[in-house]
Amino acid sequence: MDYKVRVMDRRDPEPIYVTRPELPSLEEFIPYLRKIWDSKVLTNGGPFHHQFEQELGEYLGVKHIALFTNATIGLVTALQALRISGEVITTPYSFVATAHSLLWNGIKPVFVDIDPTTLNLDPAKIEAAITPQTTAIMPVHCYGHPCDVERIRSIADTYGLKVIYDAAHAFGVDADNGSVLAHGDLSVLSFHATKVFTTFEGGAIVCPDEKTRKRINYLKNFGFADEVTVVAPGINGKMSEFNAALGLLQLQEIDLAIAKRGAIDARYRAGLKHIEGIDCVQGTHERRRNFAYFPILVRPDYPLSRDALFQEFRDQNIYVRRYFYPLISDFPMYRGLPSATHENLPVAAKMAQQVLCLPIYPSLPADQVDRVLNLLDRRS
Ligand code: T4K
What is the whole-number distance in angstroms between the Cα of residue 161 and the centre of ligand 1? Predict the structure, then answer.
């Protein structure tokens, strides 16, 4: 009896994942499927694609948007659209797709360290990394916290560089002057299953004007400008009607979903105030947040190392994640680059050792948030 109680205490049978998608009811989705079945239009810019592109642009407050099959192909295409080559300055502290998009274009990534508060590319360190081969900067709004867009723009303008934001985490985020997606030459969103807003798989490029959007639309459709004209070695990056249909439904509930995330974020922050040795990551210049992730930093004065804590969570069936460890620059295809050394990236190297992303998603119950907080609190 005693033994059974102890086992149940140690390993709660109910797993908690770092995230779960917020889906509409299947009943709501079926009429959309029926329309697709009836029309037999599955992809290649069908009616749902068109409607979703319109409504998404309105929701995000941006005029020109091109839907994609996922953000990775979006990033690859964004670099092609602006004819970026040579070297691109980027962050080592991101999901590996950020730098992979450069390698897919034969571009050399140049890693620059991150800011210790926002964990975004540190603008103060960008200029020293610029060479005659540099053509662009690819920052990431990490965890949905806006980069210092003004300083990055000023550097880019001074040196004649393009800026492509990896905005995979930044759906619906507003900085000081409206949508953070309106900054830079292009911004790329992800609608992956793990993101705040999902279309199963999906993504989008936010463009500055219709001319650029048109070119991007060619590039995501094999380079076809019309039935018989191919203007570039484009890729297949098109979003299907199924993904667009889910997007339309998601738009109806997204504000509520973000509000629910906000309540969880607040509960974590209140609970963590009393726990020594844990820092919350804080954004700056945020007018509207999306609460995409809840990263904490496990400082050396916390009673457990980050990895021991990670293991404790696993033992309790709680699937926290170490986003972003290892650093991109530590993976085999990058670690030989001169900019990939930990001496060049001391802040990123330190943060990658300390970070842990706690579960956050709209349907996560408050008692499960408390279960996470209880495990973090070593006082008892
Ligand atoms: N740039 C940045 C900065 C990014 O973070 C990402 C993607 C990209 C670019 C590229 O975007 P896409 O090309 O994917 O549109 C996940 C995602 O696969 C990846 O999309 C995301 N970043 C990255 C941060 O996280 P994993 O390997 O951690 O995912 P996974 O499968 O372990 O899922 C985590 C948890 O989410 C699961 O434990 C349970 C839950 N989950 C996941 C999936 C896929 C579900 O409940 N349902 C699902 O269908 O990479």
Answer: 30
- Give residue-wise pLDDT tens across range 128-168: 999 999 999 999 999 999 999 999 999 999 999 999 999 99
190 lines ligand 1 (CB under 6 A): yes
Cβ(21) – ligand 1 distance below 6 Å? yes
Ligand 1 pocket, residue 140 CB under 6 Å: yes
CB 170 within 8 A of CB 288: no
Cis omega (within 30 of 0) for bond into 200: no
**Distance set, CA 201 to CA 172, 189, 220 (Å):** 18, 11, 16
Q: What is the residue with the minimal CA distance to atom 42 of ligand 1? A: 194
How many CA atoms, within 13 angstroms, populate the side-chain half-sphere of residue 148? 18
pTM across the whole model: 0.96
Residue ID of nearest Cα to ligand 1 atom 23: 95
Tens of pLDDT along 157-209?
A: 999 999 999 999 999 999 988 999 999 999 999 999 999 999 999 999 999 99
